[in-house]
Structure prediction request, 175 residues.
Amino acid sequence: MIQSAPCDYGDLLAWSQHVGLLTEGETQKLLRESRQQQVEATSVFARAIALREAIYRIFKALLNKSLPRQSDLEQLNQELTMAYGRVRLAAGEENFVWEWTDTKNALDRMLWQIADSAAEFLTAGDLTRLRECGGEDCGWLFEDTSKNRSRQWCDMRDCGNLAKVRRFRTRSRSV
Prediction:
């Protein structure tokens, strides 16, 4: 899946909304706040890129059956320390739940969820289901949730379709 690289905090917000970390209203509030705090927004964006790269290298090391770099684990742990300082236990409808605190104007709140999600998968996920997309020039990593563990692409609509079209064209030319 080829996409343009994110360029600024606004791109981070758009992606966060796209994947469901933020609502449209939250995105708009944080966009307004980021204009008031441009230096912090730039810093959060740089942290997001560093976190993304560290998580990628950690999971890629696992795929290659090697130990992740200590610096990547430290990067993730640094974000987790910030994230877990913003979580508290609250009473839910049927049981207790974790909830994020102080989220109103926290420009980095999406990073808390990203770091938490990575840590959750690393500690409780089925690491044998970790895969790298077989799409040409993709490289995305994903969890294979298929029953028979045979998923090959990050997204069938993108890389999967492209691979099938290429195979079809190759077969058509050779006939």
Notes: The two ends are 29 Å apart (CA to CA).
